[in-house]
Design a protein that fits this description.
single chain, mainly alpha, Ferritin, elongated, binds fe (ii) ion
């Protein structure tokens, strides 16, 4: 059975929150990391910030179209433990693993939105598929970085 409009709005608000938290943590880590090995990751994170912001904006537009409201800062609940800037600012691998965890969470959440809108809300579903494709590409990119940065 298809999800109710309220359930879809709630799922979109959660996705919006996850995107905003990702923007905050990519920004923090893109500024926090230090060292020669950090430069490529810093610029990759800085570039991704814009894409994640675009995701948040597209989710917000859909929430509005469905009659929902966009959460402000006091309504946001954050939970990305693995993406907190590491104590050691040269811990590039720690940040890469944090990015992979965040991308995995986003992928799982978009997959659940795709399932809950099947047969009913194809506009939301298409949005979730488009964002999922971007997150999939991010994950692949950072999996490549992880291979390179953990090479013996
Ligand atoms: Fe995103
Ligand atoms: Fe992403």
């Amino acid at each position: 059975m298809a999800a109710s409009r309220e359930e879809v709005i709630a799922a979109l608000r959660k996705a919006y929150m996850m995107e905003v938290e990702t923007v905050i943590n990519y920004l923090a880590n893109s500024l926090h990391l230090e060292g020669v090995r950090a430069e490529a990751i810093k610029s990759s994170l800085a570039a991704d910030i814009n894409e994640e912001l675009t995701h948040a904006r597209s989710l917000g537009n859909r929430i509005k179209q469905l009659g929902g409201t966009i959460p402000g800062s006091k309504e946001l609940k954050f939970s990305q433990d693995p993406l907190q800037p590491p104590k050691d600012p040269t811990d590039v691998v720690g940040v890469i693993r944090g990015v992979l965890a965040a991308e995995d969470d986003a992928i799982k959440h978009y997959q659940s939105i795709i399932r809950m809108t099947e047969g009913d809300d194809y506009v939301t579903q298409e949005l979730a598929i488009s964002n999922l494709a971007d997150e999939d590409a991010h994950r692949q990119q950072f999996e490549g970085y992880l291979k390179e940065y953990t090479k013996g």
